[in-house]
Amino acid sequence: MTRRIDIVEVGPRDGLQNDPGNLTTQQKLEFIQRLEEAGVKRMESGSFVSPKAVPKMADSAEVFAGVDRAKPTRHIALALNEKGVRRAIDAGADEINFVLVAGEGFGKRNQGMSPSESADMLMQCAPLIHEAGIPLSATISVAFGDPYDGEVDPAVVANLAARAQRAGVGELALGDTIGVATPWQVKALTERVLMEAPDVFLRMHFHDTRGAALANVAAAVDIGVDVIDASCGGIGGCPFAPAATGNVATEDVVYMLERAGFETGLDLPKLIETAKWLETVLGHEVSSSLSKAGGFPA
Length: 298
Ligand code: COA
Ligand code: ZN
Description:
By secondary structure, the chain is α/β, with parallel strands linked by helices. The chain has one domain: Aldolase class I (TIM Barrel, Alpha-Beta Barrel), CATH 3.20.20. The chain has helices at about 10-15, 25-35, 60-65, 80-90, 105-110, 115-130, 155-165, 185-195, 215-220, 250-260, 270-280, 290-295; strands spanning about 5-10, 40-45, 75-80, 95-100, 135-140, 170-175, 200-205, 225-230. α8 (about 185-195) packs across α9 (about 215-220). The model has no long low-confidence stretch (mean pLDDT about 95). Bound molecules: coenzyme A (COA) and zinc ion (ZN). Coenzyme A binds near residues 52, 87, 111 and 238. The site of coenzyme A has 20 residues, from α4 and α5.
């Protein structure tokens, strides 16, 4: 039987939040619609954070109000504090992805929280999300390395995972926010996390800053991870991570996995077409390989 790997499209959130290009709300909605036409069923459609911290996500409520609810897409809202969680619920989010942070340096700059404070905040917010009947997932950012503090202790990541499990997080992503993970680190950290949080369902979030993102996807799939974050065109990055570059590109992941016999449910030519459309609205080239080379066999 063909193994299915689900891709969570994060282009409309992680992709756009730090891109030099500025999309109007209408263009963001067109991006979302194109992704839906390419088969995307789950995507991060915006974030509910301080508009001063991330101006490009300031119109997320309008984006959530404008999406086509007749489509089966699950629109995920990113949040990292109670105000964000309340705004996401009011905006009609289908799922809330909460951001935990594994490094002190990044945590302070990104969200004004230490790792344990981010877990306390999750504990405080989780009941609100459960009461609203919305699925709760979480991402542990800088799980593989912090841009300010360097190496991150796997024990910190495992402890955050255990607290996330206790908060009722169903799916937990290990986030390589700054693209420093290696395939071997992916395996080791995953094993460590599953020892302390055996009931969470794992997802992986890789950035391609240092060229290892696809190898990391392959390593994760090899050890049984079934859900991968990716952004169309490979756009993306975090405003609080110096030299951060894009997420692993959706079309590159789809190509690699489908060529290896996995099923993603996504339409490669339509993803490539969307990546090329993004170049026109963002006003610059995107980084994905497939948008340049095309698939194989043609
Ligand atoms: N949505 C909208 N506004 C928010 C907010 C939210 N979720 N959380 C806080 N704010 C507002 C406050 O109301 C306050 O507004 P004011 O200046 O008009 O009074 C302002 O932001 C500062 O709030 P404060 O609680 O003092 O937070 P801070 O200045 O320490 O910043 C965060 C903390 C979390 C709000 C901010 O760092 C943030 O939004 N970071 C997001 C980072 C991000 O999205 N990174 C990429 C994804 S991981
Ligand atoms: Zn990211």
